[in-house]
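fwd from M.: "can u put these together and see what the complex looks like"

so here's what she sent:
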Amino acid sequence: MIDLNPQQLDAVQHKNGPLLVFAGAGSGKTRVIVARIAYLIKNHAIPAYNILAVTFTNKAASEMKERIGQILDPDVARQVSIGTFHAICARILRMEHDHFGLSSTFTISDESEQLARVKRAIEALNISTDRVDPKSTCEWISRMKNRFIPPENLIESAGFNIHQKWMAEVFIEYERQLKNDHAVDFDDLIIKVVQLLEENLSVRDKLQDRFRYIMIDEYQDTNHAQYRLVKLLASRYRNIMAVGDDDQSIYGWRGAEVSNILSFSSDFSGVKTIKLEQNYRSTQTILAAASALMTHNANRTPKTLWTTNPPGEKIHVNLVENERAEARVILDSIQSIIRKSNRKLADFAIFYRINSQSRVFEEVFMEARVPYRIVGNIGFFKRKEIKDLLSYIRLILNPKDSSACLRVINNPRRGIGDNTQSQISRFKDEHNIDLFSAIEQMIDEQILKDHKLEKVNRFMQMIHDLIRKSRETSVAEFMDFLIERSGYRAQFDNVNTDEATASIEIIDEFLQLCYDYSERTHGNLNDFADYLSLYDENADRSTKDSTSLDTISLMTLHNSKGLEFPFVFICGVENGLIPLIRSGDLLGPKEMEEERRLLYVGLTRARERLFLSITRQRRMYGNIRESEVSSFIREIPAEHINYQAGEVHRGDSVRIPAPHANRISAETKPIVTHPTSEAEFRKGDRVRHSLYGNGLVLDFKGTGINAKITISFDRVGIKKLVLGPARLIRLN
DNA sequence: CGGTGTCTGTTTTTT
DNA sequence: ACAGACACCG
């Protein structure tokens, strides 16, 4: 237990009873959790098996696993249960599936499938989408589920609220569909376990006894269902440690309830509360500025962050002409810092409020041939191709999953169109069976017309082939087979469009992932499906990238949580963006406070220097708007700020007059870059791809991010890629 | 059945 | 600006 401050030590040595740790930004909370786990095992001889650590992201979970593995005997470390709420609940659900009336092969539906189901439910009920919007209904259902409000109650309480009544009926139909498909959604993972614990004494005893010591990270982000779960699991031994920071609660819009951390003391009697207030990350200036900002929030527990770090430099606030200038000024600053001091690109991060802001950075960085990466990008798992392939897997594992079946049946095109599909669906509903069985029966009874029967029959043959193959071979080989046998890849083969090329690349990338998975875990297809549903690439892929690749990091403020960088640029610190206001309507005080916390999170990621930038005008949703300095800037004491280009007016009038727009450096002076619009890469260049590794450029066609590049990779052979998504990094 | 035009609504998103 | 969803027509 070396190197812990008194408060940290206090938390680490706490043995029994509830413990609440307010862990300010950069106060070493992961260290504390990890150290406490080790301490319990080593000094109190608590079996590792009895310890549960819950995180919010897979990334946090794998980090914690790794750090525990470093201080404990690996065999012992492995026995500690570490995972996200969802992963842990999925495991419990698989183990106890017989209590839920689910087969052990139930599938986990992701968000997009959830929406598809809601749409189908609306359709099935013959409600017009003018009356209930699928997306908001989907969100509403999720909120209701997480609060354990059954749809029947909602119908009762609807009264004259006909809209609620409709949504509640959709809710019922949605649940019916899930049950029919032997599927669960993300919310179900948690709430089904809660219900089981509430209803089944023996399971409750078993799990309470198993998890005698529980630690929850990021407790401020728990929602109601997760809170109930925690309470149930911990109620017997009451050895619960909640760690969090109410000032970093930025997921309120998603159902996270800060009140969970604020009322922890009244939920568990005899709570010991510890505040970790020493910050090890940032300079005094950064910390003072961030703290000052937070004093403007009314609803929080007061805390005083302090540091022994040097005062550091003032925060630079840059006024620039527009978002393109913003990107270039930032790149300019980065390059100039690198030139002057011994820094790498990986020391720099750029944060923005909304994803679309990344675009101009991508363009500018691409032109300047500066390697960058986008952290936590919508990415891979939301790609159509991946969702399609995942649906195949789901159907193969669980033929009852009609949702997966529907997604796959005419994809790629097999001539089974809407008409045939609804004919099958009708048959399914009439006989109250699942889609797959419906098709089988219709084939048996020759219900379809000959030409349709032929097509449907061929589809079924294929699925049976796939099911057979899935039992005989590894995940990787199976996926290889699937992609060929289903014709999924062939549909793109002779199409010479950028989209098709990109699709093939995604498929290849996915295959690579399958091979990696097979090699690493030897898991079966069922494990793989869980892995794909619950885990995302950020867990293992980008952690490796971030340490091995020297690139500038770009991300949303939300995605910056939990990270740190020596140099941080936050762009678009303008009213309407930070805080974000969409289409006119004003922000309530609650929303305003969350936006303020979001900026706080961003500010506190910086170790040495902070740069904020503001444009004079910004293009948004197609039209150009005059910008206003964010009112949050005024909440940071002037002594901590150094204004860069032009004058930023701090008074009540926040309109930027843009007096010296043409003095702004990046607008007038070109960046150190290769000014021609020539090929970004040439034949013979050595490049690195995040997945395929290093390779040699064989050919390069076109310009800009849509250029096509052919590379011979050392490890995986020749691939044709589209430059944009390929995110190549030049090596020589 | 499947391709092509038009209309829409645009935050953040650990799972 | 622009992608994605939907309607319409060949």
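replying to her w this: The first strand of chain A starts at residue 19 and ends at 23.
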